[in-house]
Write a structure and sequence with these properties.
The protein is an alpha/beta fold and 237 residues long. It contains nine helices and ten strands. The strands form three sheets. It has a five-stranded parallel beta sheet with strand order 2-1-6-5-8. A three-stranded mixed beta sheet has the order 3-4-7.
């Protein structure tokens, strides 16, 4: 797996992806991350990457030339899955992360300012992706979020891949409540079933707890699911 990220602020991307599980995976050669400065693909002496929008209005728009040049230089044969962070893109999800984890090479461009000249999106064949219904100062953190969600699913990144399978959204549900030692903390006990040693009862409790949390917090995730269908199709615990 290889991920290339194009940005006007390389340190905002490189530093977060150089620590913790992702940093270790990077050091151990489980996957490769390359960060590129978009300004290196400009042709003017001031390395300008933005300009005022046609039609007027506030804000600046990212110019198409540096983006297209960067993509063509890094991926001349169009072998990479090309993404660009955009508040107007399709919503990034656990399913998308799982699908992208099967791709050998991903190229992510960090959107910025008011947006990107649409011609760059069309000419470079960029898939626009958003990490949520809100706006950030730039696409760098969005790129880090996507890279982390994808790379943690690469075999060898996590010591126990089973913990990823139990995560919220991996099965389509929110994850169940979790507990660790001590058994009693400030008068609150760990649910008895979790210390019973009865694996089937523990699995059932976790599933029912996940369903309850999902119904309360994210009922939209259960839309179109028939009663009892979750238990048949999902595996938690």
């Amino acid at each position: 797996m290889r991920i290339d990220i194009i940005t006007i602020f390389p340190n905002m991307v490189d530093y977060p992806l150089s620590d913790s599980l992702i940093g270790r995976g990077r050091e151990n050669g489980i996957f490769e991350i390359k960060v590129h400065d978009l300004r290196d693909f400009t042709t003017d002496k001031h390395k300008v990457v933005d300009d005022i929008p046609y039609g007027g209005g506030p804000g600046m728009v990212m110019k198409p030339e540096p983006i297209v040049e960067a993509v063509r230089s890094i991926d001349p044969d169009h072998k990479a899955m090309r993404l660009i962070t955009s508040a107007g893109g399709e919503l990034f999800s656990q399913k998308m992360a799982t699908d992208l984890a099967k791709v050998r090479w991903i190229l992510i461009i960090c959107g910025h300012y008011k947006g990107v000249d649409q011609r760059a999106v069309e000419i470079a064949h960029l898939r626009e992706v958003s990490i949520g219904d809100y706006v950030l100062t730039g696409g760098e953190y969005a790129a880090v979020v996507m890279a982390d969600a994808i790379l943690r699913l690469i075999p060898g990144t996590m010591n126990d891949f089973g913990s990823a399978v139990d995560d919220s959204h991996f099965t389509g549900l929110l994850g169940p409540e979790e507990y660790t030692r001590p058994e009693v903390f400030e008068g609150i006990r760990v649910p008895d079933v979790l210390i019973s040693g009865h694996h089937e009862n523990i699995r059932k409790w976790r599933f029912e707890n996940a369903i309850s949390r999902t119904q309360t917090r994210r009922p939209d995730l259960l839309q179109g699911v028939e009663p009892g269908q979750e238990l048949k199709n999902k595996q938690i615990g």
